[in-house]
Amino acid sequence: MYLSMRLFVRFFFFALLFAAVGIVSAHHALTVLFDTSTTVDIAGEVTEFEFVAPHSYIHLSVTDRTGERSAWQIETYPPGMLIRKGLIPDTLRSGDWISVRGYPTRDGRPLMRLLIITLPNGEERQIQ
Fold it and tell me: Of 36, 50, 57, 107, which one has the fewest beta carbons inside 10 Å?
């Protein structure tokens, strides 16, 4: 009985460990959520800049060719990495007009992973 309980505890521990590793690696697998074989360019009005960890987000109001508006989320690095790229919380304000290039989602949601941003002053920054 002692041996079987010991084996059960070991099995349970390793099962939890492998489950945790799977969750962490899935979270950081860029290619699971985003299609890295193509890029999308959009332009719009900043509605919010979430300068937070683990991922910062730029929220854009985008008007398409038919005049229909949609809300986009632009996922990017955490604050520390954005600061190294020259972006600080005051870089973007609600109402600013920017354009972005990034990897679209595989399922077509209005969400992308930021690669390049053109700031309101026309300056282009390579983010990823």
Answer: 107
CATH number at residue 122: 2.40.50.140
Q: How many CA atoms lie within 13 A of 70 on its CB side?
A: 13
Q: Do β-strands 97-104 and 124-126 pair in parallel, antiparallel, or remain unpaired?
A: unpaired
Residues 49 and 8 in one domain: no
Continuous segment of H or E residues that includes residue 43: strand 40-50
pLDDT tens-digit map of 41-61? 999 999 999 999 999 999 999
Q: Is the four-CA dihedral 114, 119, 124, 126 of positive or negative sign?
A: negative
CA distance 102 to 106: 12
Residue 25 is predicted with a pLDDT of: 42
